[in-house]
Amino acid sequence: MSEDFVVHVVDDDAAVRDSLAFSLNASGIAVVTYGSAPELIAQAPQLAPGLIITDVRMPGMSGLELVARLKQMRISHPIIVLTGHADVAMAVEAMKAGVIEFIEKPFDDAAILGAVEAARERLRGDAGRQAERGEIETRIAQLTAREKDVFEAIVAGDSNKSAAQKLGISPRTVEIYRANVMEKMRARTLSDLVRMALLRSTGA
Questions:
Q1: Which domain holds residue 26?
Q2: C-alpha distances in angstroms, 111 versus 6, 9, 89, 114, 117?
Q3: If exposure means fewest CB atoms within 10 Å of the residue's CB, which of 9, 57, 75, 76 is most exposed?
Q4: How far is it, in rounded angstroms, from Cα 51 to Cα 76?
Q5: 172/189 Cα distance (integer angstroms)
Q6: In sequence order, which residues have a C-beta less than 8 Å from that of residue 198 and are 6 or more positions away?
Q7: pTM for this structure?
Q8: Average pLDDT, stretch 36-48?
């Protein structure tokens, strides 16, 4: 990666900061670390181009609060959120707030590096987004009516249990449909699926 691309890591856990910095540096990626959200905000006006990786649960100001604050400040860096307490509703909230990826702890280097590369592609502009939306529509067209129902429930933030109640089927059946949806949509993670839904509905 070029020197004008820097990954800004925000986490109150020094071990996580050091681990991320080591992995990214080993791949030739420049890294700046911050021990808290306010620490990054203080540097926001002169933040080097690149992306931000932030933990979601931090004392004082959470990762999602940081996302909102940066949006208010018109800081447009792509943001990746890390969490050890992931759930569907939080994933949807993060993605709607503008986060491009949602990664659960513990994570491996490949997941982080893949997300960073995706962020760099995002920085290159909107080229190819229309084609991606077309591909998403093609995949959705392959879903059965019930799979589409489950897809909508998942990206709306429903748990398997609440989706089952809403659709009048068992949670186990929802799990089966959910697995089918992930496979047909070629979604590796929940955040992939949510991103597809948001790109389809808003073009974001």
A1: 6-123
A2: 18, 15, 21, 5, 10
A3: 76
A4: 9
A5: 19
A6: 95, 96, 155, 204
A7: 0.66
A8: 92
